[in-house]
Design brief:
Layout lengths: L8 H13 L3 H16 L6 H16 L4 H4 L15 H16 L4 H12 L3 H15 L4 H14 L1
Length: 154
């Protein structure tokens, strides 16, 4: 018995309806895996349930989404709310400015902030575009205080 053999027709339809409006890549992958396992083993796949999934997926692809986005495996830009990144971006810019003052090269300062905050270097660069000019006017102790405050709040 496979791990998802206990999923009922109604339960699977409910999950598919949920996934049409909610981003949950882990659950989406489980639904895909369920269909794949059953097809791989040449077992019965309820055509109504498969139709409910694929009708939605095909509609999303026709709207211009990638297959990963249509199946709910990859986020669609701008569709799902994200946590506020204002403080994180300020922290990233503060780290970069402090590193530059210590004599680091620009790319090394960006890489350090990226690694420290576990965000992409392009995100750090965008944060610097927003905050660097003003932060360059602040004294080191203020910047240090900003970075330590962010570390305590996360």
């Amino acid at each position: 018995m496979r791990k998802r053999d206990d999923v009922t027709h109604g339960g699977l339809l409910t999950i598919i309806e949920y996934l049409k409006c909610n981003f949950d890549p882990e659950l989406s992958r489980k639904v895909i895996e369920l269909f794949h396992e059953r097809m791989q083993d040449d077992e019965y796949v309820d055509p109504d349930v498969l139709y409910a999934l694929m009708k939605h997926v095909f509609a999303r692809i026709m709207e211009g989404q990638s297959a990963d986005q249509a199946f709910g495996l990859k986020r669609i830009k701008g569709k799902y709310s994200r946590t506020d990144t204002y403080e994180r971006d300020m922290h990233a810019a503060a780290i970069v400015v402090l590193n530059l003052r210590k004599g680091c090269k620009w790319l090394d300062a960006v890489a350090d902030a990226s690694e420290t905050l576990n965000i992409s270097e392009s995100t750090v660069k965008r944060a610097c575009d927003d905050f660097r000019e003003g932060f360059e006017l602040l004294p080191d102790d203020v910047l240090m205080q900003m970075t330590s405050h962010y570390a305590r709040s996360t």
